[in-house]
Amino acid sequence: MAGKLFKLLLFFSAGGLILFVSFAAYIYIASERYLGDVVAHQGFEYSAELDAETLERGRHIARTRGCFGCHGQELQGAVFSEEWGWVGTAVAPNLAKYARQHDAVTIEAAVRQGIGHDGKALWSMPSYNFVLMNDNDLTALIAFLRSAPVVEKPLPEPDIGWEARYLMASGQAQHMADWADLMPPLLLGQDDPPNLVRGEYLAKTTCNECHGFDLRGQEDFPPIPDLAIVAAYTDEDFRHLMKTGEAIGGRKDLGLMSIVAKDRFASFTHWELRDLLSYLRTLPDQPVDEDAAWRQLR
Questions:
Q1: Residues 212 and 264 in one domain
Q2: N or C: the chain end with fewer CB closer than 10 Å?
Q3: Dihedrals φ, ψ of 21, to 5°?
Q4: Which DSSP symbol is given to 86?
Q5: Which domain holds residue 244?
Q6: How far is CA 129 from CA 30, 44, 156, 256, in A?
Q7: pLDDT tens-digit readout, 22-50
């Protein structure tokens, strides 16, 4: 009797193991297929003048758009596994080294399209924030990154992890190439006031990383506010917020905004802050598209 029971348990255990391995294989294959089902758009041409003005512009873009914040203050790379527990090992690579190892077309695909050097979609690079970055700024950024000293730091191999793979395989999460494709175009053009055109460009290559593609907030936890609230700020209050991370009334703990403001936005020029505020003040008069595809996926 005991022998029959043992054989029965062994049978079910073997069956369970086969099911588990089969399920894991399906998750891995499906997620890999999803990550690989992307094609980079061509057309970017890199021809940077390596003069002081171009390199300084590139440094400014790197600072204000968050390259230093995510990749380290020496661009040496960083690991985000503790912050993102649902990812196996999230690694921001050494940017100075990466920019030297890959051609400009490959770098452009990573920055603006969410596609890595291996031809697969990226998972944690916020490329949707840079889709609208113009060629001049991207060219200056690449030139700066290639000029920055390479600071060596041991970094682990990135690992998406099983939870993230399951979310992709089951259609519950999108990679960065898909997010980048959802970013709507700029709305203002040559017939609009130049300060508003410049302000929209700044907002939609900076603020949309957290506040939504249209800057009208996210239903995340905690909720991220609609930037129409900035209309209540005076010029002085807004400059203080962007330089120090402190809101109206002296509120100092704004979560991520307090950190990002000091690391990135404090480097915006007086004129950039003026144009950005001018544009954000137009948001209360703009309708919110609650049915936008990107909003439904959040």
A1: yes
A2: N
A3: -65, -40
A4: T
A5: 184-297
A6: 27, 18, 26, 16
A7: 888 999 999 999 999 999 998 898 987 88
